[in-house]
Every structure is written in structure tokens, then in C-alpha cells.
Amino acid sequence: MSGYDDARGGSADRRGGRTGGPGRGxxxxxxxxxxxxxxxxxRHRTGxxxxxxxxxxxxxxxxxxxxxxxxxxxxxxxxxxxxPARTAAFDVLRQVDESDAYANLVLPPLLxxxxxxxxxxxxxxxxxxxxxxxxxxxxxxxxxxxxRPLGELDAAVLDVLRLGTxxxxxxxxxxxxxxxxxxxxxxxxxxxxxxxxxxxxLRRVSEAGRQEWLERIRAGAPDELTALAAVESHPVWVAxxxxxALAGHGRDPSEIGDLLAADNAAPRVTLVARPxxxxxxxxxxxxxxxxxxxxxxxxxLVLDGNDxxxxxxxxxxxxxxxxxxxxxxxxxxxxxxxDTAQDEDTAPRPDAAPPASHExxxxxxGGRAERWLDLCAGPGGKAALLAALAARQGAxxxxxxxxxxxxxxxxxxxxxxxxxxxxxxxxxxxxxxxxDEPGAYDRVLLDAPCTGLGALxxxxxSRWRRTPADLATLTGLQRELLASALDAVRPGGVVAYxxxxxxxxxxxxxxxxxxxxxxxxxxxxxxxxxxxxxxRLPDGTTPDLxxxxxxxxxxxxxxxxxxxxxxxxxxxxxxxx
Length: 577
Ligand SMILES: C[S@@+](CC[C@H](N)C(=O)[O-])C[C@H]1O[C@@H](n2cnc3c(N)ncnc32)[C@H](O)[C@@H]1O
Hints:
Blueprint: H1 24-34, H2 54-64, H3 84-99, H4 103-113, H5 118-133, H6 135-143, H7 155-169, H8 175-190, H9 192-205, H10 210-220, H11 224-231, H12 236-248, H13 256-263, E1 269-273, H14 283-286, E2 291-293, E3 300-303, H15 312-315, E4 319-321, H16 324-335, E5 371-374, H17 381-392, E6 396-401, H18 404-413, E7 422-427, H19 430-436, E8 441-447, H20 462-465, H21 468-488, E9 489-499, H22 508-516, E10 521-523, H23 526-531, E11 557-558, H24 561-564, E12 570-576
Parallel strand pairs: 5-6, 5-8, 6-7, 8-9
Antiparallel strand pairs: 1-3, 1-4, 2-3, 9-12, 10-12, 11-12
The structure holds S-adenosylmethionine (SAM).
Residues 326, 376-382, 400-403, 406, 429-431, 447, 449 line the site of S-adenosylmethionine (SAM).
């Protein structure tokens, strides 16, 4: 990467003061004067309400195809080529802002389309995800370097600044290259005037190292939680909810720093080997993939590398990419005995030998094969594991999903499951199922729509999208869905209430509230159910799940990224009396 040598970047502020530069108004005015395409406007404002508008989508789609709307710089300023990896990262950030896109869905096809491979692809990936994850930290840094509220800056300029700041403070890019390459990106994407501003601001950022900036952020915060939230790049309300969740689930709230830090670490790629569909020793299925057993689930394999698409078993649906927490909660539901009279040890372990045939498996009360229901199945990760387990236990599965396009994803996820196991993939509102089919199922998985605040490692942009108002909407829906799941299960049957959020309002409070209104449900010993499906260690024991003990012990299970290395999955098992 080249060093910085740009006489045109002459507005660099070396006096140590904050830098004003072109804000939204200035940026637009400049473009109007030069007659170039209107690019910023209110749509680009961070958090702008109208970012979903059609023009934004069109522009984003064109950008993803690699089409530029024409050079925004004077010919004499075009000498420096922009780096394709940085341009790709910028384009993904703009998509995330303009169209509410998910970076993990947009970036891989964009890299493939532009033939960005190898180290460049790795650089673009780290730059994109790292910038999105640490956006809050970088905004705190940038707020110290710019003399107006960041919300007044053109959103595209702000994204360029965040990209430059991540290179300076979060990657091992030499300062001169981080600044000069980012200024070149700014010049190509947002124009020469803003590029000068970017140059000046990034020079201010580069005057201190990461540690010094973190100390400055901490010193400037009004209280400890706000400081931690800024340093670890979480909205304050999210940090507060997570700290409350730690306490409510029986952990020490002082773990919040470790939890927030764990949200900023890219998770390892974990695969699920769907039992009965693929064998770990089948070399053809794994095609030389470097795999080690997971920490908790007997079905989990950790992939050393980042390309699960290269693994044949993943491509053909016998395996999939799935967090171990998701695997554990699904295995626990499939393994829990259906009625109290049954000896718990008779529940089949997921790594036990399969029954001799589909028909030879245990039956539900009444002598029929068990019927299982996945009430909110899209896109189908848990449904696929559940269906594989159902096949081994002689059960059948109905998968329900309210959104038609997600129901299609469920069908695709289930295509490797043996014929006859999946009764139906239906599209419908799960809230109606309890009334439509009362007592019709033996096991029901309710993996409820939730804030996803337990899976922030995987969705780098999502922490900035959620608002406290989402909680009110979601918790109402979660209550209705849980009531429906409990109506849909037969007496003696089991419901698994699952969220990928540890937030108390979505976990304990939903369950407590729904159970308060009915007397036909009992809580099961969920920690026991989860322990009984853990993988066996070489010495025959199972790993220590490190759940709260003593007074803090609970009858539900909450997993944590900083303790278990999984998403913060929540599981409560309930039995209909
Ligand atoms: C947390 S996701 C489920 C993830 C899924 N279990 C998996 O492992 O792939 C929740 C799903 O519930 C769906 N959903 C939301 N409201 C619903 C409703 N009223 N009825 C059924 N499904 C609903 C959402 O579309 C989303 O696909």
C-alpha cells in the first residue's frame, strides 16, 4: 500500500482542533455547484427514516453490480486508483445503511462478482465487519475530531471516516496507507471536497493510538456503563439490557465487559452434522475440511477456515452452518422424555446408534408415531436438525413459518431429510395453530422472533438497528406464540421456548407471564435436559456447562458468548399437564 502524498489534501488540520468540513448541506451544495449527480441529501443521514426508498435501493443495487454513476472528481484528481477491497467494504456499508441489508448476505456475493479473492477478500471482510461492529467506538473517536454532531454529516462521508478509523485503530494497516487509501476512496465515492475533510479528520484520529483513544472515551463518559458501551461499541440501552440479563439469569453483572467484548469477536464457523444424514468419518462428505469437534454438542464440528460452501455435506444439506447453542437447544427438546412416568435414561442420546428402521422407533402416548412441530421455522436451521432427529426417533415434523419466502428457505433446508419425515412445510401465522390444531403435537419448538441481542457476533450491524420500541412489539408476539404452542401440544407433550436473546423481557418475563394465566403447564428441569445431550469427553464424562449454582440456580438455561462461546441462546422447557 502506498504512502500518503497528496498535495490536494491540503486542508488537513494539524493544529489539533476539531474539523468541520462539509456536512450534509455543504456536501450537497458543492455537488450542485459542479453539476454532479445529487448523492447525499437527507437519505444519507445516519438513521434517516427514508433510507428504504426506491432510489436508495436502485443506487445500492447498481453499486453492488459495480456500476458507478460517473466520476465525481475532476480529471486531475483521478490519478490515484482506489483499492477494490476498500471500495467493496464501502459499498456494503452503504447497502447496510440505505437498504437495511445484512452485511453477511451482501458481502460474499459482491466479492465473488468482483473477483476479489484471497488476501484482498480477507481484508475486505475484516474491514467491513470490523467497521460495522466497532461503529459505536469509532463514532466516539470521530465525535472528538469533528466540530459538529456526526448526524449532520453526509452518511456516505461518515461511512468513509469509519472505514478509515477502523484501519487506523483496529487493523494493522500503517497510518499513512490507512489515511491515503481512505482519502482516495473518499475522492472516488463522495468527491474532492469531502475527501479533503476526510483527510483532515483521519489525520486527527491518527494522532493517538488505540489505547489512548479508549482512555479518552472512558474519561469523557458520564458513567461506567456509558463508557463501557462506547468502548465496546454497543448502544447504551443494549448494554444496560444485557447487564440486567446477566443478573436476572444468575450471573455476576460485572461480567458485562467480557460479554460486550465477546460480541465484538468474530465467531468460529461451526457446522452441524445432522444425525443419521452424515457421518463424521465420511471423508467424501467433508472433502478434506479441517474440522475439530465442537465444545458442547455431539453434532457440532468447528471448521478451521471460512468457506463452509466448499464442504460437500453442507452443499447437499446433510450438514449445515449452525451455532452450537442452537444445536444444543434443539437436541434438548428432541431428547427430553415426554411424560413423567418414563425413565429419563430411556431418552435417546443424539449420538446413540439410530433405531434399526424408521418404524422401529418409540411411539407417542396412544400408540401412534410422535408428531413434532417447529412453529417459527424460517429459515430452517433448527427444523433441519429437528427433522434429522425425528427420523431417528420415528417421528414426523410439521414446519410452520409466517413469511412465504422464509418458508421456501425451510423447504430448501429440509431437502436432505429422508422422505416421509417432513409431513408439511406450511405458511401461516403460528398464533393460529394452537386453535386450529389443539393438542395435536408431542413436541413443539418455539424459536421465537426476538431482538437477536444474543447473536450480535454474527450480525455486525444489528445492534444499531434495534430500538427499545422493538421489545414491546416482540414481547407481545412472543407471549401469543407461546400460548399457541402450549395449546398445540398434547397433555404430557413438551414445548421448548427458545430465543437468541438473553433479555429478561423476552425470556423469563414472557414465560412467567404466560404461565401465570394457565394451570395446565409445568416447568421442566431444563439444565438436566441440556446436560443429558452434551457430547461425551474421551473419559466418558460430559463438559461442565458452567451454569449458575446454589441460590442462583434456575430451571431454564441461558448460554453466553463470553462463557460458552455460543450465541446467547435461551431455553425453557415446559410440559403440558
Ligand atoms: C428466530 S427465527 C427462527 C429461526 C429458525 N428456528 C432457524 O433455526 O432457522 C423466527 C422466525 O419466526 C418467524 N415468525 C415471525 N412471526 C411469526 C408468526 N406469527 N408465526 C410464525 N412465524 C413467525 C419469522 O419470520 C422468523 O423466520
